[in-house]
Specification:
The protein is α+β, with helices and mostly antiparallel strands. It has one domain: Beta Barrel (Acetoacetate decarboxylase-like), CATH 2.40.400. Helix content is 20%, strand content 46%. The chain has a 7-stranded mixed beta barrel with strand order 1-3-4-5-11-12-15, surrounded by 4 helices. It has a 5-stranded antiparallel β-sheet with strand order 7-8-9-13-14, with no helix packed on it. A hairpin with a 2-residue loop joins strand 4 and strand 5. The chain is globular.
């Protein structure tokens, strides 16, 4: 589908986890800075990632003739890393799972989202019981005899028996204030954090544009060790309307140990069984705007 892409009636959950900054730096170097070189250097903004689970009621192109063809629903679960380059913060997604082939193809080929298809389960609403689950094609241990199989890669389960933060947001500004306080309560005034940039990243939600960065690449058909095309793309997700939001209860998180999806190792997480003490949800309408090519080769 041609951008811009409208995503209406989106319910999005975000669960924050501490992460090793050395691992996050390695992802930036291997997947972004290898293409940009010295022209723009991406670094982790803070030692943290977010697991983001989104349910989109209605997704469609705003550009004719694709805008006349119809719409679809989709779910997107992914790992989001806050990064910074040239004093400007953004989000980079090294893992994204979607339950819709059209969303996978559009995300990969237009922007460079690293998407793969999966069966994604989630609660019916922020107040409903249930777990977030990701079942995708994977290989547990690499060997010539290993068969790729669909397996459970991620599970997030609410610990509703534990006290959670009580808050419900009617506007994005309320969310900004509460999230700022929640981050400070959780991690304190950590000296490795640039709080000015952290607050700027949160403020961008209020302003309406959430910057994202992607690695867009295609394997070469002649030399399979190379890419025939690589580009770093930046594009904003523009918030059009805020409906509601609030904190979630803490969630227990289980991540599978697989060679094909080394999520824990690559993202510098603390293990395969984790707890997110700070999470939140929001219901929004937004538009994925066209991207800008930062560097290509």
């Amino acid at each position: 589908m041609a951008p811009p892409l409208a995503l209406r009636g989106t319910t999005m959950y975000s669960f924050l986890l501490p992460a090793d900054p050395a691992a996050l730096t390695a992802i930036c170097d291997q997947q972004l800075n290898a293409v940009t070189g010295a022209t723009r250097v991406y670094r982790p903004l803070m030692p943290m990632v977010a697991i983001v689970c989104a349910d989109v009621s209605r997704s469609y192109s705003e550009t004719p003739p694709d805008s006349e063809k119809g719409w679809m629903g989709e779910r997107d679960f992914g790992i989001w890393i806050p990064v910074v380059a040239d004093h400007k913060p953004a989000w980079y997604l090294p893992y994204v799972f979607v339950d819709n082939v059209a969303a996978m193809v559009t995300g990969r080929e237009v922007y460079g989202f690293f998407k793969q298809t999966a069966a994604l389960g989630m609660p019916a609403s922020p107040s409903a019981p249930g777990a977030f689950t990701t079942d995708a094609l994977a290989i547990q241990h690499f060997s010539p005899e290993s068969r790729a199989e669909v397996m459970r890669l991620l599970t997030l389960t609410s610990t509703a028996d534990r006290a959670g933060r009580e808050s419900r947001w009617g506007a994005a500004r309320e969310a900004l204030d509460d999230l700022r306080d929640g981050l400070r309560d959780l991690h304190g005034q950590a000296p490795v954090w640039d709080w000015k940039l952290v607050l700027e990243l949160l403020m961008m939600v209020v302003k309406g544009d959430v910057p994202m960065v992607f690695l867009k690449q295609l394997r070469d058909a002649t030399d399979p060790t190379k890419a025939c095309y690589q580009a770093v793309i930046e594009a904003p997700a523009h918030l059009e309307k805020w409906h509601a939001g609030g904190f979630t209860h803490p969630h227990d998180i289980t991540i599978a140990d697989t060679d094909s999806h080394p999520i824990v190792k690559e993202c510098g997480l603390g293990g395969y069984s984790l707890r997110s003490e700070l999470g939140f949800w929001c219901q929004i309408d937004f538009v994925m705007k066209p991207g800008v090519t930062i560097a290509e080769r």
